[in-house]
Specification:
Length: 293
């Protein structure tokens, strides 16, 4: 799995003293790191680590390369070079290489695990559970009718205070979101985006999940250990794309057999003990949203 310069530098900062460019790419261009061997060229898609005190930074900018320098006391200029990271001179290139190999292995195992689940046990909840290894923040997948599809790292006391199901307990939150112009506008966003929250709902890093060109679900990553910025944006998008696949295949498989609309409405109208959260979930699976009538 390819990673971004911004993500790599985030993990480096957890273990080393780091000075980095003010501009770091958030696009996942980078493959496994290598120790730079002079005088070879720097090519795109690589992470180069060098402890050579005579290393010369190329005059041209490399938008899809990350350069990590150590072995010499260096300072970033005011007009600093993009995708450049400087560590303390006492840090060896080999130790940096070993550390980054572990980071890549962690994400590769996560990615492989996601695909294994899709092939063998397709479940949105299982995808979220597996993803807690790389995203320790609270996560939720909801339908736009506020039905909970799956949660991860979610404290129980937040289930009543967040947008986790349109119930009597969450009525105030749901109503505030329906009147929030930022939340209304968010359903048209593509890619990852930051929702600033309001007086009742916390902020979140979000990715909309679409069906037939319309947003039907949303992945939300709440405040926690990881920053809600570009750093983990592509990670959230990747997870959301696989969640979308599971939801779409599940919906196709169930649409004609388990939850046709007439059966859902018949159950709703005739069963006094109907589980309204489950009914709402079934309606969302069939593309029937709270905005429909």
């Amino acid at each position: 799995m390819k990673l971004s310069a911004q993500l790599i530098v985030y993990h480096l900062r957890q273990h080393f003293s780091v000075a980095a460019s003010s501009w770091l790419s958030s696009e996942p261009h980078l493959e496994y790191p290598v120790i730079y061997q002079a005088p070879g060229p720097l090519t795109g898609g690589k992470i180069y680590i060098s402890d050579d005190p005579d290393f010369l930074i190329p005059s041209h900018h490399l938008a899809e390369t990350l350069v990590i320098l150590t072995g010499k006391s260096r300072y970033l200029e005011e007009d600093d070079y993009p995708n450049l990271c400087i560590l303390q001179e006492t840090v060896s290139a080999v130790s940096v290489l070993s550390f980054l190999q572990e980071i890549f292995l962690k994400y590769e195992e996560w990615n492989q695990g996601l695909f294994d689940l899709i092939l063998n046990q397709p479940s949105v909840q299982k995808l979220i559970d597996l993803s807690t290894s790389v995203i320790p923040n609270p996560m939720t997948v909801i339908g736009l009718d506020f039905t909970v599809i799956a949660t991860g790292n979610q404290p129980d006391n937040q289930l009543k205070d967040g947008i986790f199901g349109s119930t009597e307990e969450t009525q105030n939150v749901v109503n505030s979101l329906k009147q929030d112009s930022n939340y209304e506008e968010a359903q048209y966003r593509t890619g990852y985006f930051y929702y600033p929250g309001n007086h009742t709902a916390p902020p979140a890093l979000c990715v909309n999940i679409r069906r037939s060109g319309k947003t039907g679900y949303r992945l939300l990553i709440r405040p926690g250990e990881l920053p809600l910025d570009d750093t983990f944006g592509f990670v959230a998008e990747h997870l959301a794309s696989l969640i979308s696949y599971v939801l779409s295949t599940k919906s196709v498989a169930e649409h004609d057999t388990l939850y046709p609309l007439h059966r859902i409405f018949h159950n709703l109208l005739t069963n006094s003990k109907a589980d309204y959260v489950e009914v709402s979930h079934q309606l969302t699976e069939n593309g029937w949203l709270s905005s429909h009538s």
